[in-house]
Amino acid sequence: MKLLVLAAGIGSRFGGIKQLAKVGPNGETLLEYSLFDALRAGFSEIVFLVRPEIEEDFRTMVLSRLPASMRWQFAYQTSTSMLDEKSIEQARKSGRIKPWGTGHALLCARAQLWQHEPFAVINADDFYGPKAFAGVHANLAANPQEFCFAGYRLDDVVPHEGAVSRAICTIDADGFLTGIVEHKKVQRRGREFISEIDGKQYILDPQTVVSMNLWGLNEVIFAWAERMWRDFLSEPADYGSKEFFLPDIVNAIVAHGAVRVRMIPASMQSFGLTNPGDLEETRERIARMIAKGDYPAPLWREK
Questions:
Q1: What is the mean pLDDT of residues 254-258?
Q2: Which of 95, 161, 198, 228 gives the lowest tally of CB atoms within 10 Å of its CB?
Q3: CA-to-CA distance for 232 and 211, rounded, in angstroms?
């Protein structure tokens, strides 16, 4: 079973290439701890979705440390990937330089993913924990016809400082997703969690289920993604800044009843690198988990 790692972001809020930030005591990146957990859960091959300009640094700072037994390959995402000449010209006029989001990233990696085989997707700059990977892998193996995702509580996935994007989920009594909305500016304010949408502020329930973009999917996603991508490109006024999100694709599939999406409780905190202040907190969290024996140091002992 393959794991797709989305590592093509430009880190505008973080202020650098957060996929390569050193968080472990021996220079390990946050992604490497996810890879460690994914391998323990049973994933057998990794697809790294990157921008071509960071490939050399990615090889040097991540791949050089990974076990020789790990199977992996690259896929690539650029601001012109999967655009026709007309769309490329419209994007150029709008000043678009960054990739188009997680839904676009998924389509860019389609050729590297097995057809008729389920697979999982993660962000390179988030920590998910071993239970999340084990639960998603087990559900994909047992129920390959349905989607799934690791669900976290909102109060476990919002940092103490700074605003983050979070996919807020609605779950039915049987544990299946009924709706998902991407909130692009969620932050703490005292004991409250505030989301700002179109200039209006909303108070969110701390117990709300959140997707951190650890998805278990199958080939059904691609036909929907392609159709929605064509619709997205038909609105050139949005080319400047709008993104094509994977959760929006899943939400459309759920709304049409095409596939059921099971929530897999992650039952732990998730954290990641969004704002500059997240780096020191992430290093401290990793250090505490190493001290508890959750991860070895150095992380990779097999070469």
A1: 96
A2: 198
A3: 23
What percent of the chain has a predicted confidence (pLDDT) above 70? 96
pLDDT digits (tens, 9 = 90+) for 201-235: 999 999 999 999 999 999 999 999 999 999 998 88
What's the token pair of residue 172? 């039915």
Q: Whole-structure pTM over 0.85, yes or no?
A: yes
- Does the bond joining 25 to the residue before it have cis omega, within 30 degrees of 0? no
Domain boundaries, the chain: 2-292
Question: With bands split at pLDDT 50, 70 and 90, how would you rate the model's confidence at 196?
Answer: confident
Long-range contacts of range 230-238, CB-CB < 8 Å, 24 or more positions apart?
232/100, 233/83, 233/87, 236/87, 236/90, 236/94
Calculate the CA 203 to chain-centre distance.
24
Confirm if 31 and 17 have CB atoms less than 8 A apart: no
Q: How far apart are CA 77 and CA 8, in angstroms?
A: 7
H-helix segments, the chain: 30-41, 55-61, 85-94, 102-108, 130-142, 220-233, 246-255, 278-292
What is the tens place of the pLDDT at every residue in 50-103? 999 889 988 998 999 899 899 999 999 988 889 888 888 888 888 877 778 899
* Count of CA atoms in the C-beta half-sphere (13 A) of 12: 6
Burial of 154 (0-12, 13-18, 19+ CB in 10 A): buried
Three-state SS at 137: helix
CATH of domain 2-292: 3.90.550.10
Which residues in 172-276 belong to E strands, given as ranges? 177-189, 192-197, 200-204, 209-217, 261-265, 271-272
